[in-house]
Amino acid sequence: MRTFSAIAGSALFLVAAPGVVAGLVPWLLTQHYRMPLSTIPGFAPAGWILVVAAAAILLHAFARFALEGLGTPAPVAPTEKLVIGGIYRHVRNPMYVAVLSIILGQALLFSSWAVIVYGMIAGAAMISFVKVYEEPTLACRYGAEYETYRRAVPGWLPRITPWRG
Predict the structure, then answer these.
(1) What is the DSSP letter of 35?
(2) Which residues contact 95 (CB under 8 A, 6 or more apart)?
(3) What pLDDT shows up at residue 146?
(4) Is-contact 28 86, C-beta < 8 A?
(5) What is the DSSP string of 41-65?
(6) Which residues, including other chains, have CB under 8 Å from residue 150's CB and lie 6 or more apart?
(7) What is the reported pLDDT for 123?
(8) pTM exceeds cut of 0.85
(9) Are 97 and 158 within 8 A, CB to CB?
(10) Contact in structure between 84 and 65 (CB atoms under 8 Å)
(11) Domain span at residue 18?
(12) Residue at 124 is within a domain
């Protein structure tokens, strides 16, 4: 895939998947962000920090797919190469971790139990998708390279030092 196509496809998928999961659904659950901000001390600032930091990580992860992998996160247009640079040296699933962090940040911002429950459901769905589809597909597509990477880099809780494989 050409770089421009990879960037365009990744941008489209960013809007379609994380945009809906971390944006549209929480927006609906918080009454279009009209709920009052949390009055619990520290929740609103922590929520903002989570949302902003996770959004930056999400954009970085999408850029790695397009520029390093020459593909998209969408299963219909996968990367040509296994993406293991940047944030992927710390955690194998930074997009999912970022999306869940954005959801958690919004739950903190609005002290919303509905958003917390939604985040738990979304997290269970993501973990299931990774275990049932992504990991077997990547193992089949990239073989020993993926297995080495999978053994060295945790899936969900980032390692402090980057993997230097």
Answers:
(1) S
(2) 18, 58, 61, 62, 73
(3) 98
(4) no
(5) TTHHHHHHHHHHHHHHHHHHHHHHH
(6) 92, 135, 138, 139
(7) 98
(8) yes
(9) yes
(10) no
(11) 3-152
(12) yes
**What's the CA gap between 126 and 119, in Å, rounded?**
10
When divided into structural domains, the chain yields a total of: 1
Domain annotation covers residue 159? no
Cα three-residue angle 66-76-12, rounded to 5 degrees: 50
Extract the residue ranges of the chain whose pLDDT is less than 70: none
Residue 161 located in a structural domain: no
DSSP 163: P
Which pLDDT belongs to residue 165?
Answer: 85
| pLDDT tens-digit series, residues 75-121 | 999 999 999 999 999 999 999 999 999 999 999 999 999 999 999 99
- CB-CB neighbours of 41 under 10 Å: 8
Q: Residue with structure tokens 């917390």?
A: 116
Residue whose C-alpha is closest to residue 61's, from 72, 52, 51: 72
Q: How far is CA 5 from the centre of its chain?
A: 21
Task: Report yes or no on 54 lying in a domain.
Answer: yes
